[in-house]
Amino acid sequence: MKNFLYSVSLFLCWLLLASVPANAALTLRTITVLADDAFYTNFSQLLQKHVAGGQVNYRSLQKDKAALQQLVQQTSNYNLKNTSAAERKAFYINAYNVLVLQQVLSNYPLKSVMDVPGFFDKQKFNVAGERLTLNEIEKQKLIAPYKDARLHFALVCAAKSCPPLLNKAYTPAQVEAQLEAQTKETLQDPTFIKVQANGKKVLVSEIFKWYEQDFKQEASSVSAYINKYRSNPLPPGYKLGYYIYSWNLNDSVRQ
């Protein structure tokens, strides 16, 4: 009888010990998921406070340095293991935009991000467990895997000639619809696509020159790509040209 009770006791102890790591792992994963979900909510709240008309009020954003730094930390700690393609896409778009804002604020007041050496290609950040530059986030984590030219209208480089910064986070559930809406809005904006009837010309952002092949993967020409997202297509026969890209800071407050 003693041997039987001893065996039962050992078995029950084994069951108890075996259940603890599983429960602990489940709890840890639940906490991680909740923290990752909060990333999108927190970023949306910050953007809604400091972004209007696609421009950033960096002066007011300075008062929210702690909130921005928390987002930078969430970007670093984000767990991408077993996530969907949509979640990874949304995360890296937001990570790029968060880190641009953080780097601008670190150098503010600032006339242009081009005044900061290595802004895009040298400064590395902790991003979901990796050390990446802004260029590496854009090219390696977004453009290469997704081959989606709409991303060029979501990644905002803090310049006046950049596409407008959306005043809410891109989310895993809505990222495709958000990219579609953002692209349509940008490509119908007369300050971004300048149709000049007098000279029968269309002046477009140099983004279309720098990333021409990305757009031509989805359409026969740059003009054809633009027309996919316009309710009023570009007039046939108009010559396509490029206006000079302004790298002045996308600051809604004049310095």
TrEMBL record:
<keyword id="KW-0732">Signal</keyword>
<feature type="signal peptide">
    <location>
        <begin position="1"/>
        <end position="24"/>
    </location>
</feature>
<dbReference type="InterPro" id="IPR006869">
    <property type="entry name" value="DUF547"/>
</dbReference>
<dbReference type="Pfam" id="PF04784">
    <property type="entry name" value="DUF547"/>
</dbReference>
<protein>
    <submittedName>
        <fullName>DUF547 domain-containing protein</fullName>
    </submittedName>
</protein>
<feature type="domain" description="DUF547">
    <location>
        <begin position="81"/>
        <end position="185"/>
    </location>
</feature>
